[in-house]
Amino acid sequence: MTIPDWQLPPGVDRGLWDYLHSGEMVRGYDDQMAASALARADVAFCENTFPTPGRLLDLGCGTGRLCVHFAARGYECVGVDLSDEMLVKAEENARAAGVRVEWRKANLVALGDLPEGSFNYAACLFSTLGMVRSAENRAKVMANVFRVLRPGGRFVLHVHNRGFRGLGLGRVLVHGWRGLLRRADAGDISMPQAYGGAPLTLHHFSRREAVRLLSAARFAIPEVQGLGIRGEPRRLPWRVYGYLLVGERAV
Q1: CB-based contact 164:127 (threshold 8 Å)
Q2: SS (H, E, C) the chain
């Protein structure tokens, strides 16, 4: 599906659009997730953060791994994604697992159709937020999450770490310097796509930036967990591949 650049949704660039609509990517996505230690770690983290069944919103649900997992445990799940191809596969996965999930095609920057205070839990995993272009649009996503959570609701966010040594010393230093200068492109790292299409840009966060983003959306932040590349807990910033953060909407 091809549309002109000027018609791309807010927060979406050409690289992300090509990625979301790659049939090859979708066909291999479940195998990629099954092989990912990080994917297992974030589900386990969500299990601890969402202790009792309730309404769960998965933002950037992909092929439905989180929704299918929690729906099988009695949670009422809603998965949101901008990719038709992802959502078709998600429904296939839900049927195969014998669970019911509500799937919605929507842009995370614009979730006005979801009622205020309608969810107990929400999640935005596997660096989905980093795919949203511009700090302004990422802040809109966080405001949307806060709005749809009930008082006492909990949100799990995963972001990649711009200080991870695996990015290479040059990149770490460049983006650290850009961060000090408060440049808008600090943390924006582009790479060729394995599935063709325009380069995909993924925003990498510092721990401070991720915390500030949640705080600015009025979340309390009871937990921040650094993870290594295999999903193991890490503390030293240069060994942290990414962060899992918990946001709470106050009662």
Answers
A1: no
A2: CCCCHHHCCCCCCHHHHHHHCCHHHHHHHHHHHHCCHHHHHHHHHHHHHCCCCCEEEEECCCCCHHHHHHHCCCCEEEEEECCHHHHHHHHHHHHHHCCCCEEEECCCCCCCCCCCCCEEEEEECCCCHHHCCCHHHHHHHHHHHHHHEEEEEEEEEEEEECCCHHHCHHHHHHHHHHHHCCCCCCCEEEECCCCCCCCEEEECECHHHHHHHHHHCCCEEEEEEEECCCCCECCCHHHCCEEEEEEECCC
Share of the chain above pLDDT 90, in %: 94
In this predicted model, what pLDDT tens digit does every residue of 42-73 receive, in sequence order?
Answer: 999 999 999 999 999 999 999 999 999 999 99
* Look-up of token digits 């809109």: 140
Evaluate whether 217 touches 239 at the Cβ level (below 8 Å): no
pTM here is 0.96
Domain ranges of the chain: 5-248
CATH architecture entry for 5-248: 3-Layer(aba) Sandwich (3.40)
Q: pLDDT tens across 73-98, in order?
A: 999 999 999 999 999 999 999 999 99
Residue matched to tokens 């296939």:
92
Kindly give, in sequence order, each residue whose CB lies less than 8 Å from that of residue 44, ignoring residues fewer than 6 positions away: none
